[in-house]
Design a protein that fits this description.
The complex is a heterodimer.
Chain A lengths: L22 H5 L15 E7 L5 E7 L1 H4 L4 E6 L30 E2 L5 E7 L2 H10 L1 E6 L6 H4 L15 E9 L2 H7 L2 E9 L11 E7 L4 E6 L4 H12 L6 E4 L15 H13 L3 E4 L2 H7 L6 E9 L5 E13 L9 H8 L8 E10 L13 H19 L3 H8 L8 E2 L5 E2 L4 H12 L1 H13 L3 E10 L16 E7 L5 E5 L8 H13 L6 E4 L17 H28 L4 E4 L2 E4 L5 E3 H10 L12 E6 L8 E10 L6 E11 L6 H21 L29 E5 L17 H18 L13 H9 L5
Helix pairs in contact in A: 6-7, 9-10, 10-18, 12-13, 14-15, 15-16, 17-18
Chain B lengths: L6 E4 L3 H9 L3 E3 L5 H6 L7 E4 L9 E4 L2 E5 L4 H5 L2 H6 L2 H6 L5 H6 L2 H7 L5 H8 L3 E6 L2 E6 H4 E3 L2 E2 L6 E8 L6 E8 L6 E11 L5 E9 L6 E2 L1 H7 L6 H9 L15 H24 L4
Parallel strand pairs in B: 1-3, 2-3
Antiparallel strand pairs in B: 4-5, 5-10, 6-7, 6-10, 8-9, 11-12, 12-13, 13-14
Helix pairs in contact in B: 10-11, 11-12
Classes of the chains: A alpha+beta, B alpha+beta.
Chain lengths: 779, 289
């Protein structure tokens, strides 16, 4: 079997823009989403939802619906009262956690709150029957705005609590009092990060299939966290965890909105157990707007203290977090991430941060792309620009003055983090160079002389990624990977992450192919099925590559060691190398291929001493720290004086996410992130009226950006490897969103500076800007 | 997002469709308005008759001094019509601003006009063009000017059983320049404000002919007669245009909603009116009219 033929050199793939292996099936419509799953005998569910933000349920009349041919069953709150509560994974001191059942019990708390579920033989009958269910509501006063909810006489969202405050949180670092006393200048600003609807193109969906004979359940659900969902849903349903299989098939976007466990997932499990039939529920777009978590929802009050030379001394922030009516999985934790990242990239060590989490009669807020960090970055980056304007210092210069310096890493922050590595000035200077900042400022001066409103906005963001050390996370922050070299020599990678658009079927295959020296076509990456993949944590917080990729790297090292032992045996050598798809004896030059090694390991006629048969390695990897990417985004805008419309003339993003496994994927993430940032800055706002009626419950009203609204995006990178993981990667899934909105707001404020504007809240609609222009810059 | 059960008919014969409509069937063409309303159960027709395949309803043709446009002509048909671009381009320019490619491929002019959304793009052009709407029913035909056809938001002169058969617009006199300028609602693409202009200079260089149609501002589209009067006979100077802009929505009960207040809409009507006029006059100066 040993040969000396030299095979063609296998190209190294890490660092190359390998095209996404996921795309052909997505682009040709051959991918399998939840709604593509059809099981013989499957029933269909439709959910009856509250039209009121708050009401007492006097009765639910189901007789008319039951008589419709095809209706199989109807369940109401009473039926499901013993199904476990929808879980809140957050633990904060004094946190009020209202009981959250999978169907409303005696009251509804927000528009869209599920009251009953109809099950029928087809989805059309189920929908008609839902209309035939009569719920007798007694509407009661409600509140749809977090500031109104804080008023003494506000309607109480949960009657058992004396006010709407779910928790208060305080964190302090340094000596804020002294720093403010020492300051030459203090700038204050109220800043809103408005509620957003995550708007994954694939809405949520569940297919639950209980097998009475096996007492086992399979739930297909559009989720980012199949394993965590299994543990939690098993608990809600009282099904042993090892009898419950969760499958996240193709997931059409999540952006954090599917980093959750929803009532409907357990509800469909319950229905399937009751009926002994598979049951499918697919969320409509309107339900998605009304009942899938929203993001952001901050009203922040900030004070920044500085010396006259621009040295920032301290920052105070009070966050009013609109929680909505309940806690979903991570609801109260999201603003604590804002607190962690509020110092941004700056050296000041004095921070005072407070959060008031307030209940409203709205759908819960939770993680949406960036989850707390966009709000923090928005706040600090707006404040730095306010300060620069106040002190008449260039916004680039004031940033450079206050940046953590390269020699200061690892840098302990005022909020208790340790930034891993960075050269913030170099990244900003690269971005300034790309736009030719000095020339751009001259161009702006000329434009202003002609009466044009042109603005240049900078955001230098810091990010906390690679979630995360387990002690700092609610459910474990490690990740797992299994590598199996199959008897044929083909390689199967099982990742505990659950990629749904990020592209790890490609990037993880690149890593495995390089490490094992096999062609990428010989590698398959599987994920998302708890019956196939070892326990994992899932996909969120820009963690797939930085944590899951690291776990994969270590599993690959383990399997390489084992393969070498087989190689040594087969080549009768004590000194072999594994590269380029084969094991080579250094002394004789003789070699065996990976396939030959795999064959020997599974056939197992002879084993290396102390080595087991088979070629499988599983590693669970605990990260020692988060990773901290950063970047500089610069937006050039012009405001139409006549109409208030904003045009983005130029958008430059220089991101540093450490080493790039696949630049094509990285740029894709940056592009998508920026688009969502543009959405928040200019268009998107989940508008509730004062009572809690959602006024933007359709894509006819809620404006996600379209391709034609997006400018050319000039992306570039600096590379500062992270020392936290062996791949040197930092994470990039959320960076674009985080860096974008402050750059745009700073740019538009800069454009409007000649007319006296100091601040604008998002979304910067033409109406809002026109109002400012009419009022001479005063809001 | 599932409609109530309904009966569906499809026919190639106008007579058959009109007979079904006389019995209460609702006509379906591109479905760009009706289908979403049915899915949201805001519309619950028991019988829908698909008119897309009816012979003789999808055409664009020059007929003397008018251009006739069959009611099932898609926005894309209109946007890309060589006839319209040659002899009466305003409607084609307007169609190019509707929604997105998918909407323009599916949606029809008859459907849009019959639906009469107060923010529909076509309305501005149809008012500026003094368009005529020909209506067919099982019992006969009639033709109305656009001003008589449009009554209230989402309400037209169409009676039960009546169908728009065609819309006719004038062939432009040589030297006429046209423009349509809008601000889009970013979610829906509908016009927050849209202004359509037709303008021609007289032999002495003054403005000899001007028509302005406005959509999106008020409950229904309208012809901005007082703005036209401000321009008629003037040189079309910046001051003349500003004077016209200032009365673009002077007597209109403007709409206030999430996207724009009434005051802002009125301002936008003037701003976009001025732009449309300037664009059209610039085309004349550049010899493009």
């Amino acid at each position: 079997m040993a040969t000396t033929t030299v095979p063609a050199q296998i190209e190294k793939l890490v660092g190359k823009g390998v095209r996404r292996r996921e795309d052909p099936r997505l682009l040709t419509g051959t991918a399998t989403y939840v709604d593509d799953i059809r099981i013989p005998g499957m029933h269909h569910a439709c959910i009856v939802r509250s039209p009121h933000p708050a009401a007492i349920i006097r009765g639910v009349s189901t007789d008319a619906a039951r008589n419709i041919p095809g209706v199989v069953a109807i369940f109401t709150g009473e039926d499901v009262k013993d199904v476990g509560p929808v879980p809140c994974g957050a633990q904060l001191p004094g946190l009020r956690v209202p009981d959250h059942r999978v169907l409303a019990q005696d009251r509804v708390y927000y528009v869209g709150h599920a009251v009953a579920v109809v099950v029928a033989t087809d989805k059309y009958v189920a929908r008609d029957a839902a209309d035939a269910i009569e719920v007798e509501y007694d509407p009661i006063p409600s509140v749809g705005d977090p500031e109104l909810a804080m008023k003494d006489d506000a309607p109480r969202v949960h009657p058992q609590y004396e006010d709407n405050v779910a928790f208060r949180y305080h964190q302090e670092g340094g000596d804020v009092l002294k720093a403010f006393a020492d300051a030459d200048v203090v700038v204050k600003q109220r800043i809103i990060s408005q509620r957003l609807i995550p708007t994954a193109m694939e809405t949520r969906g569940v297919v639950a299939n209980y097998n009475k004979g096996e007492k086992s359940m399979t739930i297909h659900t559009s989720t980012q966290i199949p394993h965590l969902a299994r543990t939690l849903i098993a608990g809600m349903l009282g099904v042993p965890e090892n009898y419950l299989r969760i499958v996240a098939p193709e997931v059409g976007g999540g952006f954090g909105s599917k980093l959750n466990v929803y009532a409907e997932e357990a509800l469909m499990g319950y229905v399937s157990m009751q009926l002994g039939k598979p049951v499918k529920w697919i969320e409509s777009r309107r339900e998605n707007c009304l009942t899938t978590i929203h993001g952001r929802g901050h009203v922040d009050h900030l004070e920044i203290a500085a010396k006259r030379d621009g040295t920032i001394l301290a920052l105070k922030i009070h966050i009013l977090q609109d929680l909505g009516a309940y806690h979903q999985l991570l609801t109260p934790l999201i603003p604590t991430l804002s607190v962690l990242m509020i110092p941004g990239l700056y050296r000041f060590k004095n921070v005072q941060a407070d959060i008031t989490g307030v209940f409203t009669n709205c759908v819960p807020t939770d993680a949406y792309r960036g989850a707390g960090r966009p709000e923090a970055t928005h706040a600090i980056e707006i404040m730095v620009d306010r300060l620069a304007a106040e002190l008449n210092i260039d916004p680039a210069e004031i940033r450079i003055k206050n940046f953590v310096r390269p020699e200061e890493f690892p840098f302990p922050t005022a909020t208790g983090l340790t930034y891993d590595s960075g050269d913030y000035e170099a990244t900003l200077r690269k971005a300034l160079g790309i736009v030719d900042y000095d020339a751009l400022r001259r161009e702006q001066a000329e434009a202003r002389a002609q009466g044009k409103l042109m603005g240049i906005g900078i955001c230098t963001y810091g990010e906390i990624c690679a979630f995360g050390p387990s002690a700092a996370t609610p459910a474990g922050g490690w990740e797992s990977a299994t590598v199996k070299v199959e008897p044929s020599g083909q390689v199967t990678v099982l990742t505990g992450t659950s990629p749904h658009g990020q592209g790890q079927e490609t990037s993880f295959a690149q890593i495995a192919a390089d490490e094992l020296g096999v062609p990428i076509d010989n590698v398959v990456v599987l994920h998302g099925d708890t019956a196939v993949v070892q326990y994992g944590i899932g996909t969120f917080g820009s963690r797939n590559t930085a944590v899951g990729g690291a776990a994969l790297y270590y599993a690959l090292q383990e399997i390489k060691t084992k393969m070498k032992r087989y190689g040594e045996m087969l080549l009768d050598s004590g000194d072999v190398t594994l590269a380029n798809g084969e094991c080579v004896c250094k002394k004789t030059g003789k070699s065996v291929t990976v396939a030959e090694i795999a064959g020997a390991a599974y056939r197992a006629i002879k084993l290396p001493p102390g080595v087991d048969p088979g070629l499988v390695a599983t590693r669970f990897w605990e990260p020692p720290n988060f990773a901290y990417p950063f970047g500089a985004h610069i937006a050039v805008t012009e405001v139409d004086k006549d109409t208030g419309e904003v045009s983005i003339l130029r958008y430059v993003a220089v991101d540093d996410c450490g080493n790039l496994i696949n630049p094509l994927l990285v740029n894709g993430q940056v592009h998508g992130g920026i688009v969502q940032g543009i959405g928040q800055a200019l268009y998107e706002h989940a508008v509730y009226d004062e009572s809690g009626q959602l006024l933007t419950g359709e894509l006819m009203d809620y404006a996600v950006p379209r391709a034609r609204m997006i400018p050319w995006l000039e992306t570039s990178h600096t590379i500062t490897p992270s020392p936290v993981n062996p791949l040197g990667v930092k994470g990039v899934g959320e960076a674009g969103t985080i860096g974008c909105s402050p750059a745009l707001v700073n740019s538009v404020v800069d454009a409007l500076r000649p007319v006296g504007v100091k601040h604008i809240d998002m979304p910067m609609t033409p109406q809002k800007i026109w109002n400012l222009l009419q009022a001479g810059g005063q809001a | 997002m599932i409609a109530q059960e309904f009966e569906y008919s499809s026919t190639t014969q106008l007579k058959e469709a009109l007979a079904l409509m006389a019995d209460g069937a609702k006509p379906l063409a591109g479905g760009m308005s009706l289908v979403p309303m049915m899915k949201l159960r805001l519309a619950t027709p028991e019988h829908v008759v698909d008119i897309r395949r009816i012979h003789g309803l999808r055409f664009i043709e020059e007929a003397g001094d008018r251009v006739r446009i069959g009611s099932t002509s898609s926005h894309h048909d209109i946007e890309s019509s060589a006839v319209l671009h040659r002899v009466s381009p305003l409607l084609a320019k307007t169609a190019a601003c509707i929604g997105d490619v998918q909407v323009r491929n599916m949606g029809t002019i008859g459907g849009s006009v019959a639906h009469n959304d107060p923010a529909a793009d076509y309305m501005a052009a149809l008012f500026a063009l003094d368009a005529e709407v020909s209506i067919a029913s099982a019992t006969g035909e009639r033709t109305l000017g656009i001003g008589d056809f449009i009554l209230d938001p989402f309400t037209t002169a169409l009676d039960t059983g009546e169908l728009i058969r065609e819309i006719s617009i004038p062939v432009e006199v040589a030297g006429t320049s046209v423009a349509y300028v809008k601000m889009s609602q970013p979610a829906s693409g509908f016009a927050i404000v849209g202004v359509a202009v037709r303008v021609r200079r007289a032999a002495d260089g003054t403005i000899g002919f001007i028509r302005i149609g406005v959509t999106g501002v008020g409950p229904i589209a309208y012809r901005a007669a007082s703005a036209e009067a401000k321009l008629q006979g003037t040189s079309g100077s910046d001051a003349d245009i500003a004077a016209a802009a200032s009365v673009m929505a002077d007597s209109i009960d403007a709409t206030s909603d999430m996207n724009a207040t009434a005051e802002y809409r009125k301002h936008l009507a003037g701003a976009h009116g001025a732009r449309a006029i300037r664009t059209a006059l610039a085309d004349i100066s550049a010899g493009r009219a």
